[in-house]
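Summary of Year 1 activities. Much of the first year was spent building the evaluation harness for sequence design. The harness presents a backbone, in tokenized form, and records the residue chosen at every position. We chose the following record to illustrate the format because it has been used consistently in internal testing since the harness was completed.
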């Protein structure tokens, strides 16, 4: 409940200030900002080699802390390489899509680093059920971002104001998350050594080896519609499309992301204990997300009637046409926020990687077909239909996988102790004669 209220409050700030921000900057600046954010998101998806997703899977708090510290160091190293590569591309005048961003491309490594640190801190807080800290960080980040972008926009510095405001706002959110994590684990952090981090990395190297390629494919698939729109139709049309994404897709996706941050550790624990319980958790949350997605589509149709009365300026008059396909995309992403985490828990990285490749292929085909029927709006509808179809395939595959694992679950054959309760020996209260490692699919005997 606290996380939901924090997310709603944070996005209420974003949506409430969006008309002011849009009127100050215009579609072209939004196009530059969205392109920068899309590329930063792609690089950040593999900045930690996906070791941050193993934090919830760690067997102990000490191991989880070592994975978090390892992820921080890897993100610094990865973003430094990205900075060097971008500098070389600009110096050698190599023709790449990021050249369209001009001098704003130099901010991509900083954006990638901040996004990676947000993911690390969120995974750590979610593992420790620090819901209040997560909610507070979301509200703080949204408020600082809005104030920063409006203030910098008044100075007339163009798209750079949107980028700097975003960096400052996300940095403020990181400060809240990191401060909580450090204050509760100060002694353990000071005792950590490089050997401990390397040992934790070796234990989850297979997880990282499968997750990193899948993650970058998934990030490309998510950002591809916007990047193609910017490349085909220019910054102005791309900016209009980006604002429609921000009004619908981004807030709803972050709601799903907030739920997924808690759902992922819960699913991992439920799957270790009982496959039937994990199936019920998956179906229940999918039903909730689907209901919210349908409300999003209905809300988008209502927004099409009300948005003309919001004064964004004549330059934004085409945004109404994009709300329909973007709402369908948002609903699909909302349901898909549970499926991607379930795929990680089930260990289905191979077929999840194949699915992300399918998303990219069908998205390009759908947008190419739609482009011939209705330019930018037609391409948006092609993208929405292709992504919805792909999410339906993924959900069905995971559901069948859960059914298969539930079918292998057999009733216990342990004989029932019929002696009176007072005459039984409770072995759980006796100290163990020898240390042993609990099975990853059974509860740890040392847990209360």
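For this record, the design step produced the sequence shown next.
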């Amino acid at each position: 409940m606290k996380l939901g209220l924090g997310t709603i409050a944070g996005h209420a700030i974003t949506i409430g200030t969006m008309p002011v921000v849009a009127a100050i900057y215009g579609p072209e600046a939004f196009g530059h900002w969205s392109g920068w954010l899309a590329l930063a998101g792609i690089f950040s998806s593999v900045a930690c080699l996906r070791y941050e997703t193993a934090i919830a899977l760690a067997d102990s708090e000490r191991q989880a802390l070592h994975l978090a510290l390892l992820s921080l160091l890897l993100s610094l190293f990865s973003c430094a390489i990205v900075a060097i590569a971008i500098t070389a591309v600009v110096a050698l005048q190599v023709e790449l899509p990021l050249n369209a961003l001009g001098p704003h491309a130099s901010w991509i490594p900083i954006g990638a680093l901040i996004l990676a640190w947000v993911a690390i801190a969120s995974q750590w807080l979610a593992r420790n059920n620090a819901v209040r800290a997560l909610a507070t960080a979301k509200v703080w980040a949204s408020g600082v971002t809005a104030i920063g972008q409006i203030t910098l926009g008044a100075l007339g510095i163009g798209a750079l104001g949107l980028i700097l405001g975003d960096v400052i706002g996300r940095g403020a959110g990181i400060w809240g998350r990191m401060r909580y994590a450090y204050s509760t684990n100060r002694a353990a952090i000071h005792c950590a050594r490089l050997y401990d981090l390397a040992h934790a990395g070796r234990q989850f190297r297979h997880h990282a080896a499968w997750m990193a390629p899948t993650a970058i494919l998934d990030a490309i698939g998510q950002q591809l519609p916007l990047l193609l729109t910017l490349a085909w139709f220019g910054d102005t049309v791309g900016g209009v499309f980006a604002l429609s994404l921000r009004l619908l897709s981004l807030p709803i996706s972050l709601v799903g992301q907030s739920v997924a941050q808690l759902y992922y550790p819960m699913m991992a624990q439920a799957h270790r204990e009982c496959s039937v319980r994990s199936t019920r958790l998956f179906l229940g949350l999918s039903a909730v997300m689907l209901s919210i997605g349908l409300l999003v589509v209905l809300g988008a149709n209502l927004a099409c009637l009300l948005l003309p009365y919001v004064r964004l300026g004549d330059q934004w008059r085409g945004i109404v046409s994009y709300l329909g396909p973007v709402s369908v995309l948002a609903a699909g992403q909302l349901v898909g926020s549970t499926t991607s985490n379930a795929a990680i828990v089930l260990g289905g990285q191979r077929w999840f990687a194949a699915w992300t490749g399918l998303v990219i292929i069908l998205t390009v085909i759908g947008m190419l077909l739609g482009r011939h029927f209705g330019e930018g709006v037609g391409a948006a509808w092609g993208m929405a239909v292709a992504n919805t179809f792909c999410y339906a395939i993924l959900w069905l595959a995971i559901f069948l996988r859960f059914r298969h694992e539930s079918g292998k679950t057999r009733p216990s054959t342990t004989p029932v102790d019929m002696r009176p309760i007072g005459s039984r020996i409770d072995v759980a209260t006796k100290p163990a004669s020898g240390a042993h490692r609990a099975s990853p699919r059974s509860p740890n005997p040392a847990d209360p």
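The longest helix spans residues 205-273. Quantitative recovery figures across the full test set are reported in Table 2.
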